[in-house]
Design goal:
Residues 20-99 form the UspA domain. The protein is mainly alpha-helical and 113 residues long. It contains 4 helices and 2 strands. Helix 3 (54-61) runs parallel beside helix 4 (82-90).
Length: 113
């Protein structure tokens, strides 16, 4: 891959200020991406923390993309979350829905090479 973009978001419960929520989301995003730059140096990553509807933000940020990759986990036992379904319905490029590994385990970085 020559270019890539990763977008992620964290839902908040609405009880904290926008600034505090943004700081918490930025910290969670940075922690989740720790080590990936060294493992995948060919992928350019932009960390974006923004308020608003996740599907709308993903679609806005994906302008010019060749592919959108979204997670499949929905709340309340649904196979696809509402953001994933909205992206699938509205995207103008292919969408890959990534399912979590059984047992919630993360992929081993060493086995992906």
């Amino acid at each position: 891959m020559r270019r890539g973009r990763l977008l992620a978001w964290t839902r908040t419960d609405g009880r904290e200020s926008g600034h505090t929520a943004a700081q918490r989301a930025q910290a969670a995003l940075s922690a989740s991406l720790a080590g990936y730059a060294g493992t995948y140096p060919q992928v350019r990553v932009h960390q974006i923390v923004a308020a608003g509807d996740p599907a709308e933000r993903i679609l806005d940020e994906s302008a010019g993309a060749w592919l959108i990759v979204v997670g499949s986990r929905g709340r309340g036992g649904f196979a696809l979350g509402s953001a994933c379904r909205a992206v699938l319905d509205e995207a103008t490029v292919p969408v890959l829905v990534a399912r979590p590994r059984p047992g919630g385990r993360r992929h081993s970085r060493s086995s992906e090479r």
